[in-house]
Amino acid sequence: MFRKVKFVISISILLIAGLVLIRVWVNLKERKASETQKEKEIQDVSIRGADMQLKKIRFVEDKHGRKTWELEAKSIQQYQDQNMMMLEDVKVTFYSKDGRTFTLSGNQGKYYQDSKDMELVGDVELVSNDGYRFRTHSVSYRNEEKKVSTPDPVEIEGELIRLVGKGMLVDMEGKTLKVLNQVKTQWRGRAG
User: Fold this and answer.
1) CATH-assigned architecture of domain 49-187
2) How high is the mean pLDDT of the chain?
3) pTM for the model
């Protein structure tokens, strides 16, 4: 009889141990699934906070029958409470009254819907249709003034000139460009 009790106790212990191991395994699987979900939530945090997300967009603004600017982006996330859009792989083309165009591009940007102001960061480039190319890390565009500025190092190239410096202000309507500090200019000869 003692052997039967010992056998029943052993079987009970094995069953309890098996149930405990199964429960531990299930808990570990649930924890791993929970951690995976949390990682996904962290990756999607900027999207989740957005009121709307769009891929491959294009906006055009016309005033009095004349195109004033055109914006293209790989994706946008709109935040209604801030009246702002976050942009990825941005390209904006501005059309001046005299027919000149300026194309501004960058990796990421913010567009403020009320003011139509914009900030771009990462591999920023401004190209004019008359052959000038400007490169920097970040720029701010002020729509009301039609001005582009940066405090960062800049590089400007044209057919006859290469200029580097720090800080810049471009007045697109006034057709002026100012490099603010540490300016170095290299003139290029014309091939003739």
Assistant:
1) Sandwich (2.60)
2) 78
3) 0.63
